[in-house]
Specification:
The protein has 10 helices and 13 strands. It has 295 residues and is an alpha/beta fold. The strands form 3 sheets. A 7-stranded mixed beta sheet has the order 8-7-6-9-10-13-12, with helices on both faces. The chain has a 4-stranded antiparallel beta sheet with strand order 2-3-4-11, with no helix packed on it. The chain has a two-stranded antiparallel sheet with strand order 1-5. A hairpin with a 5-residue loop joins strand 3 and strand 4 (47-49). Helix 4 packs parallel to helix 5 and helix 7 crosses helix 9. The radius of gyration is 19 Å and the shape is globular.
Length: 295
């Protein structure tokens, strides 16, 4: 598996959110001790891997099932993949119930929809017809087996034609894309006027504090890491306005339900949030050193 991960890599010099090349290295390995360099933009706070695998490598990483096999070889799962997805699908459905009580969408596109469990739950709860776009062959086959229209492709390469949806979901996926800004812009084009988007992130600040280690918050399969501030800026740039948000403590996620809005291409986090991010990461490192010394 390690031979696959260490194929030739590409460098990312500019921030996907603000375009700046000014950044600081915050970690030189990921949670599996792989030599993955994470950089944080000193202008807006977005975090990205560089160097990283190329687009073709990442596609193969997910398509072949190497991603799941690699993770499970390091952290053997206590339960089947479907167990966690069912729990999270229930969380998402509960989050949406109030908003969809009188105005549920007729269809939904689940981007990076894995085995289709979430899409199937939305169909059962709200009656919306689901479509899944998922690069993993085995996981998309499971979604298809649930009677869900499924495209086995990377969303970034997928060509939807002129089709439109009323609701889009990017759940447990946005950190995996190589160009989140373009993914959000493409998603907006898939929606009818007044369409809505549900998206979630693992807030990198919260994760680093929770595990008390910057490196343990980094993942080789996450080319990007977001915070609440950078995610809201990315959404604003793409033309989405979060109208409802929630914190799923069990899964350590922030969830946003967004309406369409006019794109704000210059939207950026306030500099105070960037200062706060680096202060939190510095404090986590200080805590690490104190714990090591105490031990």
């Amino acid at each position: 598996m390690s031979e696959f991960i260490y194929r030739p890599t590409e460098y990312v010099h500019n921030c996907n959110l603000c375009g700046s090349s000014a950044h600081a290295v915050i970690a030189t390995r990921d949670r599996f001790l792989l030599p993955a360099v994470s950089r944080a933009c000193t202008r807006c706070g977005l975090i990205w891997l560089s160097p990283r695998m190329t687009a073709e490598q990442y596609v193969e990483f997910y398509r072949s099932g190497a991603y799941r096999a690699f993770v499970w070889s390091r952290i053997p799962p206590k339960y089947p993949l479907s167990h966690g997805q069912e729990l999270y699908a229930a969380t998402v459905a509960e989050f949406l119930h109030k908003s969809f009580r009188d105005n549920a969408p007729t269809n939904v596109i689940d981007i990076g929809g894995s085995t289709g469990i979430l899409a199937g739950r939305l169909r059962a709860e709200f009656g919306c017809v689901p479509t899944v776009v998922e690069p993993s062959e085995s996981e998309s086959a499971e979604a298809r087996g649930r009677g869900i229209e499924t495209f086995t492709e990377s969303f970034e390469d997928w060509k939807p034609g002129s089709r439109k949806w009323e609701f889009a979901v990017i759940a447990q996926s946005i950190e995996h894309f190589l160009n989140p800004r373009d993914v959000l812009a493409k998603t907006r084009l898939l929606l009818v006027p007044h369409g809505r988007l549900l998206i979630d992130i693992i807030d990198f600040r919260l994760r680093a504090v929770m595990v008390n280690c910057v490196e343990l918050a980094c993942k080789i399969d996450h080319p990007f890491e977001m915070t609440d501030h950078t995610m809201r800026a990315l959404l604003a740039q793409a033309g989405f306005n979060p109208t409802h948000s929630g914190h799923d403590e069990q899964h350590g996620k922030l969830i946003y339900l967004c309406d369409m809005a006019d794109p704000q291409p210059d939207a950026l986090p306030k500099i105070e949030s960037v200062v706060e991010l680096f202060a939190i990461l510095n404090q986590v490192r200080l805590n690490q050193h104190e714990n090591q010394f105490a031990g």
